[in-house]
């Protein structure tokens, strides 16, 4: 049998040596485009646990507010601070921030804006309420207390 | 050219693709795109200063009062609560589904209101803990009414018209009335 096979001079194998390169290209593409985190956090975060969680349907309508103890304690003190838009701010500035976020949305969706509150569990309710009062003023009433899932016993 | 008898000098690179694939799949799987999950809440609208405040009278028995002070101690209906928070669940459910049987509990699920008040010094962890238990109590009632387990209820598809209608119907008879009062300004 082998006698006959040898007669055809061309190799029957498909050259696959370029395949790894293609796959590597894909791999690099994914590694480069994956954005791990958009906001550079200036505060430490340890979200509380909860079991009854809901998901947000429309991600484009979500803006984030972070509250937690600053990472640089010597610079900002050890009291929980508010971070939004990449900077630390006071509760009074929240209304302005919400307005800015609203202008990014199409006009029909501006009242549906959802504020995702990523609040560290050691924060006190005082600062949370101050933020909520500002949100009421800015008419961004839909909020989400971000939390990590907990198993129900 | 004479055919050499030695093995070919090429490196067998066929499995290279497999290795690359493995890496690719590893990255695809481990990459977690930050998921947004949490407890949804709709804040009440800002009080209009021009409008006169109407005092709504609610019977004391239709209120389930939870109070947390600045050192995270809990008062439930005026009594200190020392048990774990999960034990609040049967209490809340008994209160909501009482339907006028017991004198000191709610008249009907529609009239039942869970009032939750914190202090400025209350920790956020405690706040979420209690809010979660309250949601759990109500969700368990809904799940039972819909003939699902709690897990099925939490994951059911809100786009499924049949189930959504049924859920809305139940929500009408047993509304989730959790009132979060503004914190008092004692602590902090």
From TrEMBL, chain A:
One annotated GO molecular function: transmembrane transporter activity
For this UniProt record, the keywords arranged alphabetically read as follows:
Cell membrane, Membrane, Protein transport, Transmembrane, Transmembrane helix, Transport
Residue spans crossing the bilayer: 18-36
Subcellular localization, per the record? Cell membrane
Any one Gene Ontology cellular component term annotated for this protein: plasma membrane
InterPro entries attached here? ExbD
Biological process (GO) annotations held by this record are: protein transport
Any Pfam family hit: ExbD
The keyword S-adenosyl-L-methionine appears for this protein: no
Q: Describe its membrane topology.
A: Single-pass membrane protein; Single-pass type II membrane protein
- Name the family the entry cites: Belongs to the ExbD/TolR family.
Recorded protein name is Biopolymer transport protein ExbD
Q: What is the lineage of its organism?
A: Bacteria, Pseudomonadati, Bacteroidota, Cytophagia, Cytophagales
Automatic annotation (TrEMBL), chain B:
A GO cellular component annotation here is:
plasma membrane
Keywords, ordered alphabetically: Cell membrane, Membrane, Protein transport, Transmembrane, Transmembrane helix, Transport
Report if keyword DNA-binding is assigned.
no
* InterPro entries recorded: ExbD
- Which family does the record assign? Belongs to the ExbD/TolR family.
Task: Write the protein's name.
Answer: Biopolymer transport protein ExbD
Q: Does the keyword Protein transport apply?
A: yes
Tell me where it resides. Answer: Cell membrane
Pfam families xref list: ExbD
Q: What GO biological process, any one, is recorded here?
A: protein transport
Chief subcellular location equals: membrane
Q: Name one GO molecular function term.
A: transmembrane transporter activity
Q: How does it sit in the membrane?
A: Single-pass membrane protein; Single-pass type II membrane protein
Species lineage:
Bacteria, Pseudomonadati, Bacteroidota, Cytophagia, Cytophagales
